[in-house]
Structure formats: structure tokens, C-alpha cells
Amino acid sequence: MSDVSMHTALTAKNAYASTKTDTGKNIIPENVISRDESAFAQLLGQLQDTQEATRMAETKSLQAIGGKADVVDVVNAITNAEIAIETLVATRDKVIGAYKEILNMPI
Amino acid sequence: MTEIYRAMNIATHGIRAQGGRMRVIAENIANVHSTPVTAGGDPYRRHIPIITSKFNHQLQANIVSSGKYRLDNSEFPIKLDPSHPGADDTGYVKMPNVNELIEMVDMREAQRAYEANLNVIVSAKSMLTKTINILVN
């Protein structure tokens, strides 16, 4: 377990370091994630997918209210958005946890 | 798109197909007593729902589609009712070739298939959620 947390902590450290250099630039990549982008930047890229899933869920819900969409489509879209958000939140918590671990490290 | 998302989308199509089938069955049941309007004319003819499989390129899978139907060409049962406006010269009226018992069994089958597809979505979602929960705990 300590091995794993050590690893995530290191990843977060690297991520933080490269994001710092990225500041000022658009951190959220345009759909395509290149190899040299930091893990943190890639994580932010996932935000777009989540955003898209959420927007889809909202569109479908609105259509359903107007009687234009199938209930099944709404359920499907909302489930997709829910899963995407859950993944994002879980990953975010993990990354922030790792970052806090570094902060608490005695120097 | 991951495999589980695809599974959920395929199940969604299955649910929609069973819904279409249900619509045709509802049409049959609603018209079970629809008699002819002109003397000697034909009454409502039973619709048979058709469910077909179609390859979907976006999902890279065979999805199911429905909502179409064909006509049941079986004989109309006849009933003696000379006072009916749809009765022919001999006093017989053609009745729709809908058998309520058959429709009921079809309906139950559509219901079960619908539930099976719903269960696919529930299972797929639970699989994904459990995987994400590894991160949370």
C-alpha cells in the first residue's frame, strides 16, 4: 500500500512540476493528448469528456420533458454522465490526497 | 468507448425495440373488437411485430431494431349478427383475427425481454461503479 501511495505521490509531484511550467498556456488539451503532456494535464483533458457526457444528459433530459426523447435514452445519458463524474471525482480525490501527502512530508 | 458503455448502448436499443413491439401488441389488443364499417367489408387485420438485427458501425455490434410490422393473413373469424352494419348478405360479420390470449403471451414475452435488457444496464452500471469504488476506498 505504501508503495502505491508513494508512486501516486511521485506522479502528483511530477504532474505539479510540469503544470507549473504550463501556467499561462491552455492546460486543457484539444481532445488529442500528446505524450509529453503531464499526467495532470491529461487528467484535465478527461474533464472535457465528462463535460460532454453531462451536457448530453442535460440535453436528453430537456428533450424528454418536451416529450421528444425516449426515457431509456435519458437513463442511458444520465448513467454515462454519472459514471464519468464518479470517475473524475475519485481521481481528483486521489490526486489531491497524494498532493497533501507531499505537503505533510517532513523536510 | 469502452466495452461496458457499448453494452449499455446495445441494451438501450434492445429496450427501444421491445417498446416498439409493445406498441404493435397494444394496437392489436385495442382493436380486438374493431368490426368492419361497410357491409361485407374487412375488419382490423392483426399486425405481427418484426424484430430485426442490424449491424451498427458506431457501436461495432449487432443492434436490434423494431417498430415495423407485417400483416397477419390468417382467416377472419365470422359471427352471426344480421343487425350489424358490417354484416354481409348472409348476416355474418367478419371479426378481427386477433386472439387476446396470443397477444397476452406476446406481451408477457416483450415485458420479460424488456426487463432482461434493463438488467443488462443495471449490471453494467454496477460493474463500473464497483470498479471506481476501488479508488474511493
What do you see in this structure?
By secondary structure, chain A is mainly α. In chain A, 76% of the residues lie in helices and 0% in strands. Chain A is built from three helices and no strands. Chain A has helices spanning 2-22, 39-65, 71-103. The longest helix of chain A has 33 residues, at 71-103. The relative contact order of chain A is 0.14. Chain B is built from two helices and four strands, in the order H-E-E-E-E-H. Chain B has a two-stranded antiparallel sheet with strand order 1-2. Chain B has a two-stranded antiparallel ribbon with strand order 3-4. The longest helix of chain B has 37 residues, at 100-136. Chain B starts with a helix and ends with a helix. The chains are: A mainly alpha (107), B alpha+beta (137). Chain A binds chain B through residues 70, 72-73, 75-76, 79-80, 83, 86-87, 90-91, 93-94, and chain B through 5, 8-9, 12, 15-16, 19, 121, 125, 128-129, 132-133, 135-136.
What does the secondary structure layout of this molecule look like, with pairings?
The complex is a heterodimer of chains A (107) and B (137).
Chain A: H1 2-22, H2 39-65, H3 71-103
Helix pairs in contact in A: 1-3, 2-3
Chain B: H1 3-30, E1 47-56, E2 61-71, E3 78-80, E4 92-94, H2 100-136
Antiparallel strand pairs in B: 1-2, 3-4
Helix pairs in contact in B: 1-2
